[in-house]
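Quick start: what a row looks like.
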Amino acid sequence: MENNKALEKKTLSYRWIVWGIMVLAYMVVFFHRLAAGVVRDELVEAFSLSAASFGSLASMYFYAYMVMQIPVGILADSLGARKTVSTGMLLAGTGSILFGFAPSSGFIFLGRFLVGIGVSTVFVSILKIQSQWFREREFGTMSGLTAFLGNLGGVLAQTPLAIMVVMFTWRTTFAAIGAFSIVLALLCYLLIRNTPGEMGFPAINEAQKLRESAQMEKPDLLGALKEVISKWQVWPAFVFFGFFSGAYLAFAGAWGVSYLTEVYGMEKGSASAIVSFAIYGAMAGSFFTGWISDRLGLRKLPLLILGCLFTLGWGILVFYNGGMPPEGILQPLFFFMGFTGSCFVLSWAIAKEINPPRYTGISISVVNTGGFLGTAIVTTLMGVIIDRASDLAPLVQFHRAFLLCFAGCIIGIFCAMLLPETRCRNIYTKAD
């Protein structure tokens, strides 16, 4: 008994090393996700990009990320999170270096696509790790904490990135991030273990115990995918995540800085500092959302309440003062939108809890595909809308583009109403 307690203590200790190195990788994910908007002017000047072309470039990351979600889920469930994320970070580092040294626009598209492919491995893998190294009732809190710390990478992609670009040029900055990613890939391979059992430690949650009891039976991955996508409850989460993630990331990662510089006449440094408040809000909101959900033992109710408030925030941005709210309220407004928009973290938990524990990677990856498909489409369409209104005032251009986000949020709320209430338990495991 004493030996078991000692092993359990080691499990509870080492899991923070495994999770911590993956969170570092996740910060790189967010850096690339939100970096394009800050270097828009430099890229437009270097490669003569139109608004639509820049929108497509920003979206290239999300298209690559989206295409890889289901394959990554299958890899995480079969090959394991350790090898999946190590290979992905190596590829992301290569893509970032290529982006930094790109001699033509074709190479920056290719570099950003490779980055998207590489970092797409991290999120599903980290949730897979959480499902193995943390208890069932800790999943919502840990997902929120993961998003909170991951968003620090997004913070680095705002004002700190703008400063680094001025000091070292955008090319050197992205090449350095690439080199860091390659070092991180090595650390992932050396330190990450897929399950406590690989370290000789005991399982600490019911889902993991069930998986270990059936470890000799290899899952039918194609059958698993069919089972996951055959559940109608997965699709409202797919669409909800798509529109909410799309609205937040298109603003914070691509068009927010341009909106403030062109509509309000701000300097880029000031604009990126204000957009950062959306990221600060997302950091706080991600942790709060996961924590309050686990505390209440509910998923759907907090998701719906916060989702309605996020939609309200977009309504203020779109309709108040003709789409140009007073400058003094922008920081609290963006923080509010980031905080409430983080409710989409609960769609991951719902996806996990309505599918068999052994299919955690695939179930989350299916829903995550919706998030990045939505983000890619919204970001691209916003660029098209702005281009088509190029003969009009910037305020009109962005007002029309932001209307798309507001409409998407309305659709997302209707989808959220269709989601099941899992009460923070996997429906395939018995209550404790």
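That is the whole record. The chain is about 80% helix and 0% strand. Residues 132 and 195 are 6 Å apart (CA to CA).
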